[in-house]
Write the structure tokens for this entry.
Amino acid sequence: MARVSTIVTNFRAGELSPRLEGRIDLDKYNEAAQTLQNMLVFPQGGVTRRPGTYFAGAAKDGGKVRLINFEFSDEQAYVIELGANYMRFFKDGGILTEAAVSITGATKANPVVITAASHGFSNGDRVIITSVSGMTQLNNREFTVANQTTNTFQLSGINGTGFDAYTSGGTVAKIVEVTTTYSVTEIFEINYAQSADVIYMAHKDHAPAKLTRTTATSFTLTNVDFVDGPYLDENITSTTLYASAATGSVTITASAALFTSSDVGRYIRLREVLEINHDEWAASTSYANNATVRFGGHVYKQVTGSTQTSGNTPPVHTSGTETYGAIDWEYVHDETGYVEITAFTSSTVVTATVKTDDGGISVLPDSTVGSSNATKRWSLGAFGGDQGFPKAVAFYEQRLYFAGTTGQPQTIFGSVSADFENHTPGTNDDDALNFTIASDQVNVIKHLLPARFLQILTTSAEFTLSGGAGSQPVTPTNVNILRETTFGTSGVRPLRAGNSTILIQKGQEKVKEITFDLDTDGLLGIDLSILADHITRNGVTDMVWQQEPELILWFVHSDGRLIGLTYDRANNAVGWHTHPLGGSGTVESITSIPEGSEDTVYMSVKRTINGATVRHIEYMKQIYFGTDVADAYYVDGGLSFASGGANVITGINHLEGETISILVDGATHPDRTVTDGKITLDRDALKVHLGYSYTSLMQTLRLEAGADDGIAQGKIKRIHGATVRFLDTVGAEVGTDTTNLDRIPFRSSANPMNQALSLFTGDKEISFPSGYDNDSRVMVRQNQPLPMTILAVMRRSNTFDA
């Protein structure tokens, strides 16, 4: 006996995985999609086609790069292209350049010679050329300057003898670039934290550095010049040190082997006990000229020139000479001083420079200068030498924290409050602090993440750091560290999404959501990948949070696929979807920055074009393009042109030799192959989008309509009709699988044949020619460069009990 029913499939983001079968009520089978490829999930219901990716520029020399975000403000947000020993920047959909210079000539020669009056370029500069008429083969391309003169320069390695003749116009601009010391194998290990116009960077093999934005088109990268620290614990051995002088460049001599050549750049802190060497200042006391006293941790010298009696006010200044009553007191030094090693001589001798402390003084204590004052009271810097450098960095409660050095993998170093590069140790509430996680196993710190508490993410557990009860701030005397979960974190930089922490577990296959749980008054870990664990299998390598216009976590799979996770906990909407790019594109890195009303997702895409491996920087176009289908952008790695009614489109050099899909004034156009950076259309056009085609599809789960003797699962079924409810759609195919799809007609005799179709909203009914099987699924596909949004699928079917 057959049971006939009509099933309404409304797509809900929380139930989008075939692996949910057997874990939820069978009644919910009707309300889930099994497969979503290049379809985004709307938390409010429905799935829509992923917008295409737009070509922003090529990575330098085609090398592997990492993309990170730099957000100075909503108007000044950048994507950093971090490659082998360099940084470049993208903004507003293009590569960042200095002011452009007008071009007045270009030769059909080998190499091409450009004329641009007073261009100011140097040999080796990288430049971008745009808007040239005639010799359009130069447009939207990057070149290297060679053999420059005041008004001309060559395009290194570019043979222009076969180019079209230059006619007029064009500009050339130098690409903004910063030199770094990070190799291509190190760029994905960098951790970073931003404050205003400065990004602090941490890598285990490099001194902490900071990238400073000085103008809208100018950046500098320098090592952090820390003030007084951080340091290891003070020496407890018999080894002594002394300095050859109190100021300037000095020689530091050790009584036993202590130094290595890797100590260059490392700090040494020297301390004296003031109580031993200097009497405490006292009122109404006679002091001879050049007598020293101590007060408030400072040492002062009487420099009046004769014996004088003190008054009732002690000296408190921290620089220069000031008069208190009858006595002129000169500030001499504090209890400590520190130096930076500048040269290695031997295991017992180094050259160093006396550094300026947080009081502005660059002088060492008297009792540390000279061989007769060799002291055991010294501390070596915690960064550099055999200690390595920190691999984690974060801001929390107005302090800059570093952690995870090779020598102290469980130790965290916090700066002076509101003075990020100052690590002067002490016990005052605003002094710098160092502390080590006490645990039953070694937990190498990999990441620090600010949240309600500072989250310390290690190789085997997750901890929180706080000031103790309530909202008490962290100080050197009240540090409270609690172990919260024991997942372990991979090298992929974690992030905050809403009020949750998202991390990739150490095996790189599981995505964990860490949230605060009121019941346990601690952190709770939830496995997000369990919803569709096949999607993240074999690992993910990068991720980013897109907050506008929809809440989506984006991941890069180890095989180069782009993966999305609609993540809206407030509306209980969590669902996975996959996004293979068109052409040969595989994603290697991803980030997001605010641009206009949306967060723009940028990605580094590896492609093979014309037999060569290239990396393109591409960004995802806006999800909501408006109401005109001519504005719909559904191609990958492409460009848009306002051609003004022409049929020849130029400036497509980045797709040379590739077959591309085209949308002309809202209507599809036959594919073309790019030759000499251009294509010719069949008709004149006003608005053109072109790039790689890609396929978007949705497939429902197995039908569950119930049966006379129970459920429909495992029984023979047949779908004989279906209705698909669309929103703002043009074009789609419907069927049982990829080999049995019928195109739905959207054009009727009422539509003018010389105009593009308007966006369609409503139901399309399909006579469903499926056979009899146990699955009974519906698939909807779009492979044209047109929009498609599905709100529901209504299936009419038979279930056979026999």
